Amino acid sequence: MVKEILYYLVAAFFEILGCFSFWIVIKNAKNPLWLGVGVISLVIFAYILTKVESEFASRAYAAYGGIYIISSLLWLVFIEKQAITKYDFLGAFLSILGASIIIFSAIKKLS
């Protein structure tokens, strides 16, 4: 389970970096070279997510959703320097609970 969570965390970093790269170019008029960073990051994200042990891609993506939410909120705090609200905490808690249930059940089926 630890290995899967690490894969999800690394995948989340690259997905957020990839999407954020597009965001800063389109919304903040940054250097278009950031689009290259975005594309490369999204390719790495997709590749890493295939390393997760799961019988079905959709189940892996569903479990990843909870990890992505937590990672996005960490990005919000450390990169965008914004505060997390109580609703962010509640939503993150519920999503990570759901993701944990999916990850645990998928791993249990594989063993």
UniProtKB/TrEMBL annotation:
Spans through the membrane: 6-26, 33-49, 61-78, 90-107
- List the SUPFAM superfamilies: Multidrug resistance efflux transporter EmrE
Q: Keywords of this protein's UniProt record, alphabetized? A: Cell membrane, Membrane, Transmembrane, Transmembrane helix
Tell me which InterPro entries the record gives: EmrE-like, UPF0060
Task: State a single Pfam family of this protein.
Answer: UPF0060
GO cellular component terms, A-Z:
plasma membrane
What's the superkingdom here?
Answer: Bacteria
- Name of the protein: Uncharacterized BCR, YnfA/UPF0060 family
To which species is this protein native?
Campylobacter geochelonis
